[in-house]
Amino acid sequence: MATPILLIEDDAHTASLLARTLQETGTFDVTSVRSAEAGLSHLANHRVDCVLLDYRLPDFDGLECLRNIRRDHPSVPVVLITGAGSEELAVEAMKLGAVDYLVKHGKFLSRVPTIVREALGRREIAAALGGAGTGEPSLPDLDTEAREHYRRLGIVGESPALEQVLAMAERAAQSRVGVLLEGETGTGKEVLAHAIHARGPRASQPFLAVNCAALPETLLESELFGHVKGAFTGADRSRLGLFREADGGTLFLDEIGETTPNLQAKLLRAVQDGVIRPVGGSDSHQVDVRVIAATNRDLRQESEAGRFRLDLYYRIRVFPIRLPPLRERAGDVALLAKYFLERLSRQEGKHLRGFDPTTLALLERYAWPGNIRELQNEIHRLVLYVNAGQRITIEVLPPWIVGQAAAAPATDGRSLKEVLHEVEAAVINQRLRQHGYRREATAKSLGVTREWLWAKIRQLGLVVPSRRPRSEE
Fold first, then answer.
1. Per-residue pLDDT tens listing for the chain (473 residues)
2. Which domains occur in the chain, in start order?
3. What is the four-CA torsion angle of 136, 140, 141, 146, rounded to 10 degrees?
């Protein structure tokens, strides 16, 4: 059954072109009306899945009509149609609830079916996330195949926070809309972007990535859009650029919030129209690239401060997914630690006997400000540090992990006394090792007497190697 579309456009020629473009796809049934009043009347009496709304109408302007539609038909997506140079007006419409906008310039007709499909996709996503009016997410459970897919890529965990992310990723993978991954540094945004690409219809096509914060503007522009030979000093040959290299596939723009306003304008055209122009070139090229962007900034605040284009923000944030930090993923640290230990031990060709339970407890209580990246790097250090055949115990943990764990509340039912004894044992063992088991030096570094130190060692039941000769003290 064709999807019912309402077109509110007073110009007969434009209305005819838009309707014919949509109907030629074979999936849309278009009804055209010439005024806002006629459009509102049709909405009140017929099923409509999407509205294309011109800004300039004979009875009242498109923004007023939009307000009426959003009030009376809040679930129907509205795409505003504006003339060239009216992008600011379009952004204002999106603030009022329009899901997208269409600018009448150039080859705008070729974009119409895609924009309508994306608007319908937004509606489906909103319905899924709305939980049938309950306000709670209503997302499908992951099947075994999906879980294994994410695990192979290193996305490991069972916490409700991660389950929500992966369920949303499954939705995003099957759509064509822009995805914005939001979250702190080290939460795994690029890994998730790759997973979304690999679960979708573009999986057989290229997945390319670029860190927008890693290159200055001129180099980043060339990296993204390519350049012609002689465009700048050192350009001894032409380059296609990532947008053309990723044609048919996915381009991941990490830290997109670090781009300059000038580059954001060019990104907008590439994302909005699928058109790019190489640096120094005069010809434009059409590309079909799905963009997944990521940021550790609040781009809404950046837009309000004038540092990020609001129209680009709306384009890339059709489907936002927030990746939670590790401190919000209760229980996942231990699973990730074991996963990294298994993988990195195999990579280094070293068999280890796993973690001591107390070590895992301390790892779980650490806040991990660097998130998954910090945890992975720490496990890699431990794999390199510990001898083959050994178990990873608290003695080899760095002092900042042990120290923070001392101040963190225990979540495993143990008493404060037990936790403090555990931390004391770890710190004392570290200092003894650091000072070659020399009593005077160890006690001094701890700010205690030698007698107190050895009394504490006996109290905690620590096993300390035989004393070194006095000459070594």
1. 688 999 999 999 999 999 999 998 888 999 999 999 999 999 999 999 999 999 889 998 889 999 999 999 998 999 998 876 666 777 788 788 888 888 887 678 888 887 888 788 777 666 655 543 334 444 556 788 888 899 998 899 989 899 889 988 988 887 777 899 999 999 999 999 999 999 999 999 999 999 999 999 989 999 999 999 988 888 888 999 999 999 999 999 999 999 999 999 999 989 888 889 999 998 999 999 999 999 999 998 998 899 999 889 988 988 889 999 999 998 899 999 999 999 999 999 999 999 988 888 889 888 899 999 999 999 999 999 999 999 998 888 888 888 775 555 555 555 656 666 777 777 787 788 778 888 888 888 888 888 888 888 888 777 777 655 444 44
2. 3-133 (3.40.50.2300), 144-324 (3.40.50.300), 328-434 (1.10.8.60)
3. -140
* Identity of residue 320: P
C-alpha atoms less than 13 angstroms from C-alpha of 105 in its C-beta half-sphere: 11
Structure-block tokens of residue 166: 């992966």
Q: Is 183 left (phi over 0), alpha (psi -120 to 50) or beta?
A: left
Nearest-angstrom CA–CA distance, 32 and 86: 23
Token pair 């064509």 in the structure block, residue: 176
The b/e string for 384-408 (b: 16+ C-beta within 10 A; e otherwise) is eebeeeeebbbbbbeeebbebbeee
Q: What's the one-letter identity of residue 14?
A: T
Handedness of CA 322, 117, 76, 94 (dihedral sign): positive
166 contacts: CB under 8 Å, gap ≥ 6: 142, 146, 147, 150, 155
Note whether 275 and 286 are within 8 A (CB): yes
Name the nearest CA neighbour of 121 among 100, 144, 147: 100
Identify the bridge partners of residue 28 per DSSP, sorted by sequence position: 3
> Which stretch of DSSP H or E encloses residue 430?
helix 416-434
Q: What angle do CA 238, 244, 247 make, to 5 degrees?
A: 155
C-alpha distances out from residue 111 to 97, 142, 215, 396, Å: 21, 33, 31, 58
Do 242 and 210 meet the contact criterion of CB atoms below 8 Å apart? yes
- Asked if residues 162 and 334 have their Cβ atoms less than 8 Å apart, the reply is no
